[in-house]
Amino acid sequence: MSALTSWLASPPPDAAVELATDAVSAATLSSRGAETAVEAFAQESLPPGALTPTLMGSNVHDRTSVVAALKTVVARLGSKPRRVALVVPDTATRVSLVRFEQVPAKSDDLDQLIRWHLKKSAPFPVEDACVTYAPAAANADGGREFLVALARCDTIREYESICEDAGLQAGLVDLSTFSVINGFLAGGRIPSGDWLLVHMKADYTSIAIMRGSDVIFFRTRPEGEDAFAGLVHQTTMYYQDRLSGQGFGRVLVGGTGRRSTDVEAARLDLETRLGTAVERIDPTRLAPLPDRLGSASEGAGRVIPLLGMLLRTQQEVGVA
Fold it and tell me: Which domains are present in the chain?
């Protein structure tokens, strides 16, 4: 199983770090015989406005506070990591699914074709963009979809340089919700058929429809009064009308939200709207957590993308 997306491959990281709007968090893994477990986890809140993810313009507005928070978090892990996998907000990028009836045999030709396609919709020159993609669902006629993520190179460098100022090397960069999905894929816990995943953060909600291990729909919506209801409604309508949806075999919701009650409220709302059972994402099904982290706690919500990133990198080097 290949990873969903990354901007830069590197040796296995010592830890995973997430830079989010409201907090910085980090985690490390350890081996307990044949079992992989979360060895350490730490988080530190950020002052409002210190980091505001956006596709355009600067994302970091209080560099001193963000770097200080990252240093504090790393110190709480115990042994200081050097190489880290970096998780960035979904809203710092634009994600799309691109379909081609014929896929070029050469990777360079495919890269050029995807960049040419993005030129029509990118809000800045594609030449200034970090573009990454991974194969998604294959079409019956031999074509294929690709899951494509686009970000300004300056934006990715902005996040990487935060790590550098804290004495860390960010060798792998990925999106928060992609990392959650990768946790399921790397852990071998892929629901059969179609399944829905909702990932809530303080400032946005992302929703993905999966068909087995393939992403067939992905949307991110900034938080607002009707953001969640609108996102769910649009997604379910699109699923039924355009994706020949026959119903979700499993629905999962996780993350943090703006308030501690948001995820549970979203779970109950989804059950009402979809008429099916909705589960909270339980990171303990992927790996044991430290005793102080309950499976429904805020920390557990924050550890899920970190755990997904670490499990993915272990699998890529044949560790997990």
Answer: 15-92+153-316 (3.30.420.40), 94-149 (3.30.1490)
